[in-house]
Specification:
about 190 residues, about 0% strand, mainly alpha, 7 helices
């Protein structure tokens, strides 16, 4: 006889009300089996969350040309659960989307390296992806030191030659005296 059945037999023999017996049996079941059931339910919920996260990754991975994992190891499941617990499913989807949109992550880099699931699962990589560190950026035209020097020299010569005006040959006096025999600038 199980412990619950034995307890039930004693309760009925003592004349307890039906509601009290039912409540007592439920409490005993919860005490005896509740933790195992809770762990099983949590495992199934976690499994569903991992499956959902993996489906999102696969969706973007196929579009971006990333490798699709063949085996979902216990270590990968643990890391997926950690990223989901830290950031949530929306952040996971955003990270997958950003990684797929990144030229660098897709292999447009010096080495041809491509991101994969294991890269995404690293805490530092996951956060960097969300922060936009791998986002494509438009090239900002920057003036080199040499180009700046040329520009400044040209401006200085124009000020000296044209007397501070920005109009070429605006003065009545010639910039150079080209009288016969004397070809030097005055």
């Amino acid at each position: 006889m199980t412990p619950i059945a034995t307890a039930l037999k004693h309760m009925l023999a003592s004349g307890l009300a039906h509601e009290s017996v039912v409540k007592a049996v439920e409490d005993m079941e919860r005490e005896m089996y509740g933790s195992k059931r809770a762990k099983t339910e949590t495992k199934h919920e976690a499994s569903a969350a991992v499956d959902s996260a993996l489906d999102v990754y696969k969706l973007y991975a196929e579009k971006a040309g990333f490798s699709i994992p063949r085996k979902l190891t216990a270590e990968r499941v643990k890391k997926i659960n950690a990223r989901l617990a830290e950031s949530g499913e929306d952040a996971w989807a955003e990270a997958c989307k950003k990684m797929a949109a990144s030229s660098f992550c897709r292999g447009v880099n010096n080495s041809g390296w491509k991101a994969d699931l294991d890269f995404l699962l690293q805490p530092s990589s996951f956060n960097r992806i969300l922060e936009g560190r791998y986002d494509d950026r438009k090239a900002v035209a920057r003036e080199t030191e040499f180009a700046r020097h040329q520009r400044e020299c040209t401006q200085a010569l124009e000020r000296k030659v044209y007397g501070g005006r920005n109009e070429h040959f605006a003065s009545d006096n010639p910039a150079f005296d080209l009288s016969p025999g004397d070809w030097r600038a005055h």
